[in-house]
Write a structure and sequence with these properties.
Layout lengths: L11 H6 L4 H10 L12 H25 L2 E7 L10 E7 L3
Antiparallel strand pairs: 1-2
């Protein structure tokens, strides 16, 4: 997520619908790193939660893109967050015609 660029993101329409300008997109990508961090201090949990929200937003746009291009797509949690902060996967199969 944090290596994603405006030019490489698969669903610019998603960003447009949600009124996300380039500068905010870059911030969303950078803040997505916070999801897997273990920050200390009073703002640590809030920062981690914000990072997860950023990841979820980017993944939702990817899921939307796949759905509009003939795939059944879902974001699934494959293990608990206690095991790993990176516990979600985007799973897609070609839709039946």
């Amino acid at each position: 997520h944090h290596r994603c660029t405006w030019e490489s993101y698969c669903n610019p329409e998603w960003l447009e619908v949600h009124a996300v300008p380039v500068a905010d997109f870059h911030l969303i990508c950078r803040m997505s790193m916070w999801a897997a961090s273990h920050p200390a201090g009073s703002l640590g949990a809030s920062r981690q939660s914000l990072g997860r929200s950023c990841k979820h937003f980017l993944d939702a746009g990817r899921r939307d893109y796949l759905a509009r291009h003939g795939f059944n797509a879902a974001i699934v949690e494959y293990c608990s967050r206690e095991e790993t902060q990176e516990n979600r996967a985007l799973v897609a199969t070609r839709a039946q015609e």
